[in-house]
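Narrative progress, year one. The postdoctoral researcher (J.K.) led the effort to move from monomer predictions toward full complexes, under supervision of the PI. The following entry was the first complex the group processed end to end, covering 613 residues in total.
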Amino acid sequence: MTNTHTVSPPRRPTGLTVGSSQRDGGRQATGTAAGRAIRHSIALARRGLLKTWRTPEALIDVTVQPIIFLVLFVYLFGGAITGSTHDYLQFVLPGLLVQSILFGSVAIGVNLNTDITKGVFDRFRSLPIARSAPLIGAVLADVIRYVILSVVLLSAGTILGFRIHASPLSALAACLLAIGFALCLCWVSVFIGLVARTSGAVQGILFLTIFPLTFGSNVFVQTSTLPGWLQSFVRVNPATHLTSAVRGLMLGGPVAAPVLWTLLWMAGFLAVFFPLAVRRYRLRA
Amino acid sequence: MLSARPGNLVPMTDYTISATGLTKRYGSTQALAGIDLAARAGTVLGVLGPNGAGKTTAVRILATLIQADSGSASVDGFDIRGQAQQVRQRIGLTGQYASVDEDLTGTENLMLIGELLDLRRPAARSRAAELLAWFDLTGAADRQAKTYSGGMRRRLDLAASLVGRPSVIFLDEPTTGLDPAKREDMWDVVRSLVTDGSTVLLTTQYLEEAEALADDITVIDAGRVIANGTPDELKQVVGGQTLTVRPADPARLDDAGRILAAIAGARPESLRPGVISVPVAGDQALTSAVAEFAAAGISVTELSLHLPSLDEVFFTLTGQRGTAEEAA
C-alpha cells in the first residue's frame, strides 16, 4: 500500500437529520388530491421547460423546419397551384401551421420513450404522486413549443407577405385553437411513446399516421380539386377541420362548423388516449 | 436499534420490510420464483446475489414500481399492493443506474423531488442545499448533472432518495462501478442512515460489502433464496478468509509456500501463476506472514487477506461452479 487516500467521508452538518424525526417539516398543507396532482404536474412541467431551455436544438422541428417548408411550398408549388406565390402563401400558411403541429407532436412520444428507459421515471414512480403527473407535466411543457411555432411561422409568413384579413383577436383565437389541438393530439404521441419498444419505432409509427393526415387534407390544395374517394377521407380528417378553422379565423370566412368539428376531435383524442396512456404508464415495467 | 416511528401506527409484523412468496415472470423468464425477505427496524438487510438473480426485481416490487405476480409484502406496516401511496411516502430508492435528470443541475434535481413531496419551494431549496452539503456537492450544485463524474452522480442520486427523510431506504447496488475509496464513502453514508433509525435494504454482488454493512444477509440466486442469516452465520457456512501472496521473485514461490503452510496448517494452492493462496482461520495469520517473510528475506508485491468471492460462496452453497457468470 503506497498511496494513502485521504478521502473524507461526507460530513454531516450538525442538526441535519436524515431519518424520520423531521418528517413533516416544511410540508405544505396537502390539499385535495386534484390540487396536489395539478401542483405536481406543474413542477414536472417546469422540469420540461428547463430541459427545453438547455437543449434549444430540440426546437428545430418547430422553428427551422416550418420555415423551410413555408419557403419550399410557396415558391415551388405556389405558381403551379394558384398561379401566384402570394395567393398561395395566403392559402397555405394556415395549413402549414397545422402540418407543423402534427409533425411537432412526434417529439413528445420519442422523448418519453427515451426518458422512461433511463432511471428518472423510476424515481417518479417511487414518489407519492399521481401516476398521471409526469405525463401531464410533459404535455404542459410542450405548450411552449407550440407557442414558439405559432410565432415563428406567422413572423416568417409576414416577412414573405402573408397578411391576416381578420381581427387580431380572431387570429389569436386561431393560434389558441391550434395549440389546444396540439395538446390533445400529444396524447396519441404519448401513448405510442409508451407502447413502442424503441424511440425509432415511435417515430416510425407516428410518421406513418401523420403523413396521410397532413397530405390527405386541405392543407395544400382545395378539397374540390380532389377525386371523390379522396374527398370523403379529407372531409373526416381532423387536419382538414383544423385547417379550415384556422383559415377562417385568420382570413375570414365560415368558422362555426370547422371549429366545432375540431373541438369534437380534440375531445375525442383526449377521451381515448389520455386514459390509455396513463393506464399504459401504470402497467409498464 | 429499534425506534418508535410516527406513521407506523399498526405494526403488522416485527419487521419493517417483510415479503413472503414474491414471484414475478417476464415472458419466459422467471425473475422471482417465490422469495421471502425480512428486515428488522433500524437494521441493514443485505440481499446478495449475482447479476440476474432477481435482486433488482425484488427491490422494484418492494418500492411499488412494479407489481408482483403473487406473494405479499409490507413496508413500514403498509401493504405494498393496497397501500402503495403510503409506502411511497416512507421510502427512498436509489437504483442501480443513477436516476437523476442529466439536463438539470444538482439543486434543480433535488428541488424537483422536494416539490413532488409537497415541500414548499423555500423548504425544498434549503433541503436541497443541506443534502448537497452533506454529500460534498455544494461546489457542483449549479452545474448540470451531465457534467458530474460517476461517483458524483451516485451521490446526487442517493441525496435525491433522501429528500423526503424516508424511514425505509432501498439501495440497489449502490457501489457498483465505484472505485474503492468512493465505495468506503458510500458505506459511511449507509451506516449513518441506520444510526438515524432508517431501515435499509441493500442489494450487492460483493460479499465484502454485505459483510461490512448488513445485519442480516439473504443470498438469492435464480429468483430463489438459497441462504439466509447473519454475516457470521454465512461465513461459517462458506468458510473463512484466504491469504494470498505474490513473491517479487518467482523463484521464491516454494519458500513462500512453505512459510504459508506452516502458518495456516494447510497446503497452499496456486490459482494464478506466481501467486499462492491458503485458507486461514484467524486474523493473526496476516501479521505472522509479514514477519516470517521479512525474516526469510522474501519481498512480496501482493499480500492480501480476503473473504471468499461471490463465486466461491455460490460454489459452497449450491455446489455448482460458475453460477455467477451464467446468470449474468
